[in-house]
Amino acid sequence: MFSEEKLNKVKEIIARYPEGKQKSALIPLLHLAQEEFGGWLSPETMDYVGSLLQITPIEVYEVATFYSMFNLKPVGKYLFEVCQTGPCMLNGSDQIIDYIKQKLKIGVGETTPDGLFTLKTVECLGACGYAPMMQLGKHFREHLTPEKVDAIIAECRSKANAN
Amino acid sequence: MAEEKKLFKVKIDNISVEVEPGTTILNAARQIGGDIVPPAMCYYSKLQGSGGKCRTCLVKVTKGSEADPRPMPKLVASCRTTVMDGMEVANITSPEVQDARKGVVEFLLLNHPLDCPICDQAGECHLQDLGYEHGADGTRYEFKRRTFEQVDIGDNIKLHMTRCILCYRCVYTADQLTNNRVHGVLNRGEASEIGTYIQKALTSEFIGNVIDVCPVGALTDRTFRFKNRVWFLKPVDAHRNCDKCCGKTVLWMRGDEIFRVTARKDKYGEVEDFICDTCRFDTKEASAWTIEGPRKIDRHSVISQGHYVGTVKPKDTLVEVMDGRQPRLLMDIHSVSQVNRPEIDLSKIDGPAHSDDFNNAKR
Amino acid sequence: MQLLQNAGQKQTQTKEQVRRIINEYMGRKLLLDKAHIEGIRYYDTYRKNGGYEAAGKVFKTMSPDLVVEEVKKSGLRGRGGAGFPTGMKWSFLAKPEGVPRYLVCNADESEPGTFKDRYLMEFLPHLLIEGLLIASYALGSHSTYIYIRGEYAWIPDILEEAIAEAKQNGWLGKNIQGTGFDLEIYVQRGAGAYICGEETALIESLEGKRGNPRIKPPFPAVKGLWQCPTVVNNVETLAAVVPIINIGGEEYAKIGIGKSTGTKLISACGNIKKPGVYEIDMTISVEEFIYSDEYCGGIPKGKRLKACIPGGSSVPILPANLLLKTAKGETRMMTYESLNDGGFATGSMMGSGGFVVLDEDQCVVRNTYTLARFYHHESCGQCSPCREGTGWMKRVLHNIEYGKGKMSDIDLLWDIQRKIEGNTICPLGDAAAWPVAAAIRHFRDEFEWHVKNPNAAQQRNFGIAHYADPLPVAAAAV
């Protein structure tokens, strides 16, 4: 269940669309729910979002499974989404992916046993000029090198420890 | 106002037809009929919004209209393109269209399991027909095929996702005939599948119609599963008083036994009227129906290959031989088979009979 | 087709005329001219530096139709990739009584190699909002949506902040600047689907559905968002409306060559010294763009140019010799027409302006494989040629790249792409087919090399150095 504050946000989002078109708020609400409920969308979360918008559960599932940013399974606290498309490949994204795999001892799509890191390869994120790159949370980490990857991992670990 | 509606003149494969404005090329072609009708795997005239997806009905518009005679730059989906006055269309007369269609059939069959020998849809499958008519005799695909687990979605419906060609007809059916759709298209691209996401039963008075609209064997009737081959059954038109639907159905029978009930389908495989699940799944006693007479199953179906026309009734002697019991056979196999020849005495052959025994025997 | 027809018109201008235009407008910047100013992201600085003057001018002196006329005069062409004249698109918008009309800004920038819209939104949000304001006024849209790709997760905050600032200063909301015109701008995030850059898929997504492109007709100009008349324009297109109003459509049309008017943002990446977003007036040559210090600055480590994808991943790749000079031997310019000179046989496209450079060490097969994987990943799965064909191409390319290919696979690939192209609902099928077709067309021997040397192909995923040798060495920087 969303907090009072988030419910107000939901209302605000629904108000962006003409009356009766509240289904348009589905993707923004799924984003909101994913942030709120542990970084992934459980069936219960999706049903809840559907009930907020008065749409059937299948309408939510159809949409949630279509878009690659919605995680339908639990993910680690820090999700490394490394781009591997053309321009990033030209600048060595394959080596970066290999380096992360070796460093975290996980394969693509896997989560470290401590639940901290998940590695995911993604297609073009629109930062081709700053390749190789990855998305971590809201932001892009660009011009990756093995040293930068080390620093990012250390940064995440220390953040996790601080909590 | 007695204003006369202006009809549009359209030429498809050099055959002219006059149709009402707003008609699609496909429906104009159906008005002409015959070989020039493009095949349609996803379009279904009774389902709003269907069509445009499978791309088997692609045609070439060689002349846009009288006013703007330029040809259209790409092939168009005839099921979703409306005619213009003076339009000229090439379907079977265009090698380009035939080539593209062959490509589409190859794509549709790429991940299809080709499990027709164990598929209930065999014999009335649109993909089979399409494959025979436009397909190549082999595949160039050398990779592992996409597979899915088969699931029961409800007591009466089996979903074989592996066979699905994603025509979306069943989704439209659930949307337009029922008020609570619980299945839909999940995931994206090659991984797209029909599903409920969470194992859920499809329950609705009319959900059984998804079986009738499915062009392949992806959605099949569990009450008929593996019971019989459709071409061994005798389809008859029948009706009953039903408070939910029109009650007009086709019964698929063998002797007095009703193996399955479907809606009545026209020659393009579209139902004339949707029927309810009570008629379809729960009314299997012959006494509940008024039988009108045999139904001719039209167009390139295995069922229609002449086996039911001129059926020879079993000889009365057979009844005697069978100790007065009525034989279940409805046709005389001797009239259709090369193998069964009464002059060969099977008891004189050593071991199991081989085709050579029949072929080498003197006539 | 339209691009092909236009291709001939460049030749009507004499060399002298071209040179005069080049001299007069050389290096002119219309979109990014203020990008270097500190704080330009915020309203006060933007306003102080001439911001919202175009909007003010429109509200004071122009009727909506006049704005459309002005954009028509400018010859502005859609900057999202297709290059359709914007003014024409605007004039197609149906205007039935009592039905709302919508403007949607397409910020779902996902074409590999393209990152210009992100730059505009991140650094010049008010430029986009001013453009949206003018366009909404011209089209009569009172609720305008910016559909931004979900991965640009921090940019909606920037835009929403700018929208709030504009609202505080009376540029959005009710009765804007006392004209009686109302407008709200909303930012909507996508969630990771390249296909939503296609305008009808974008509309579906905005309606809260799967991003399946619609079957056209009806076009969005008649039935778009919520079945109402809708115009969908790219971020850069809408931003370009501001300078068009500022300097006038006719003046804008004088920049560039032929039908490639105005300035274009090019996002350059790949093996170049200075990757980034550049604003060019469409009068410079491709060679100058790659080698001049003002732009890409040449290729690092003294390597040679092997090939280039000049307009985002879906346009055909060109080998160095055909990139710098057309098949006719003319200098290839950075214009819609010149890049398309020779059609797809020997030319390419301007596309979305994603300029990807490959140096001599890069492997075309691997590059093509990653692109095929991209399109396979992004296919919506609605129509069969794209759903099945993109995966097939990916797998065949994977085999070739990893030393398991056969000679016949190359012809098979050609046949698959041929059967996808033109037969799908939306242009994603074409976009998936073209890169494969062009790679085989121009680099067939490299595919054959992979088949003949399976071990070497497996060991060296990053190019075949000897392979660049036959390519002409490009002249040094201009």
Polypeptide structure, described:
The complex is a heterotrimer of chains A (163), B (363) and C (478). Chain A is an alpha+beta fold and 163 residues long. Chain A has a 4-stranded mixed sheet with strand order 2-1-3-4, with helices on one face. In chain A, 47% of the residues lie in helices and 11% in strands. Chain A has helices at residues 4-14, 26-36, 43-53, 57-66, 86-90, 93-104, 146-162; strands at residues 78-83, 117-122, 134-136, 139-141. Chain A has 2 domains: 4-66, Arc Repressor Mutant, subunit A (Orthogonal Bundle); 78-162, Glutaredoxin (3-Layer(aba) Sandwich). Chain B has 3 domains: 12-103, Roll (Ubiquitin-like (UB roll)); 116-139 and 147-221, Alpha-Beta Plaits (2-Layer Sandwich); 230-304, no CATH class. In chain B, the strands form 4 sheets. Chain B has a 5-stranded mixed sheet, with helices on both faces. In chain B, strands 13-12-11-14 form a 4-stranded antiparallel sheet. The radius of gyration of chain B is 24 Å and the shape is globular. Mean pLDDT of chain B is 85; it is low at 306-314. In chain C, the strands form 3 sheets. Chain C has a 5-stranded mixed sheet. The longest helix of chain C is centred in the last third of the chain and has 25 residues, at 428-452. Chain C is globular. In chain C, helix 9 links the parallel strand 2 and strand 3. Chain C has 3 domains: 31-192 and 232-254, Rossmann fold (3-Layer(aba) Sandwich); 258-357, Ubiquitin-like (UB roll); 364-462, NADH-ubiquinone oxidoreductase 51kDa subunit, iron-sulphur binding domain (de novo design (two linked rop proteins)), CATH 1.20.1440.230. Chain C has helices spanning 2-7, 15-25, 43-48, 53-61, 64-74, 86-91, 116-123, 125-139, 155-168, 199-206, 235-247, 249-254, 286-291, 320-324, 336-339, 343-346, 364-378, 384-401, 407-420, 428-452, 454-459, and strands at residues 101-107, 141-148, 184-189, 230-234, 256-257, 260-261, 263-270, 276-281, 305-309, 318-319, 354-359. With 478 residues, chain C is α/β, with parallel strands linked by helices. Chains B and C meet through helix 2 of B and helix 17, helix 18 and helix 19 of C.
